[in-house]
Amino acid sequence: MLVMKFGGSSVSDAERIRRVCDIIINKYKTDKSLFVVVSAFGGITDDLIEITNLAAENNPGYLLLLDRLIERINNIISELAIPQSSTFVQEIEENQDALRNVLFGVALIQEASQKTRDYILSFGERNSAFIISRYLNTVEVSSTYIDARKYIKTDNTFGAAVVQFEQTNKNIESLRSLKSGVNMITGFIGSDMMSDRTTTLGRGGSDYTAAIFAAALNADVLEIWTDVSGVLTSDPRKVKKAYTIPEMTYSE
Ligand code: ASP
Ligand code: MG
């Protein structure tokens, strides 16, 4: 069994999403039960943080940025040419309304607790996994959208929640018997064991989500796909001479 993870920059626009799906479809030819973890579309998490901060100051500018974010997501949907079935449109609209409503609440009370922030940030991964899963359906790959909040149980340290492995592993193991297809999982998010409230695993947490799923499913391989091969000596955007480290130990 294989678990794959694609980060935000790999799914930042329709063109890149198509390329990611080509990679998935290629694997799917030989492996009919895939688990794929995705981050929010590139930049969306940062945008949601900025929008929340503005709303918490009751700065009406938050609405402009929110409209822009929703427009970006809708553009990705139309560029991917996902058929606008009534259930699909309804799901997307309900999701966008919920985001708009919670931000309106933040603006009204001029306060955003970490608990509220985690819920707001979860829109990023829930949108990307849902949309990519539906796109795969349109190119005739059977794919199920999986909201990781149902599986990854955590404590209530909102913003950097600690995974409760006993329950989490049990929940994820139940997925092993799933029918074949591409299971498209939201990275980064979980839910509080006691209250079921949305939690996040800390910035960049989607790699961790993928590792949690891979371990619980006893996967043969976890593939973390990113913009560069392997691990480089430094950020290649900043250091021209950066090169791939040929071999690394676990502690390195
Ligand atoms: N979207 C989240 C973040 O930007 C999680 C991730 O990308 O891994 O931090
Ligand atoms: Mg990342």
Please supply descriptive tags for the structure shown above.
single chain, 252 residues, alpha/beta, 5-stranded parallel beta sheet, 3-stranded mixed beta sheet, binds magnesium ion
Helix and strand arrangement:
Elements: E1 2-6, H1 14-28, E2 33-38, H2 44-56, H3 61-79, H4 86-109, H5 114-138, E3 143-146, E4 153-154, H6 165-173, E5 181-186, E6 189-192, E7 198-200, H7 206-216, E8 221-225
Helix pairs in contact: 2-3, 2-4, 2-5, 4-5, 6-7
This protein binds aspartic acid and magnesium ion (MG).
How far the N terminus sits from the C terminus, by CA atoms, comes to 26 Å
Helix content: 40-55%
The best one-word shape is globular
Rg measurement, Å: 18 Å
Strand order of the largest sheet: 3-5-2-1-8
Number of strands: 8
Helix and strand content put the structural class at alpha/beta
The biggest beta sheet, please?
A: 5 strands, parallel
Bound ligands, each once: aspartic acid, magnesium ion
Describe the structure.
This protein has 7 helices and 8 strands. With 252 residues, it is α/β, with parallel strands linked by helices. It has helices at residues 14-28, 44-56, 61-79, 86-109, 114-138, 165-173, 206-216; strands spanning 2-6, 33-38, 143-146, 153-154, 181-186, 189-192, 198-200, 221-225. Strand 6 and strand 7 (198-200) form a beta hairpin. The protein binds aspartic acid and magnesium ion (MG).
Task: Give a short overview.
The protein has helices at 14-28, 44-56, 61-79, 86-109, 114-138, 165-173, 206-216, and strands spanning 2-6, 33-38, 143-146, 153-154, 181-186, 189-192, 198-200, 221-225. It is an alpha/beta fold and 252 residues long.
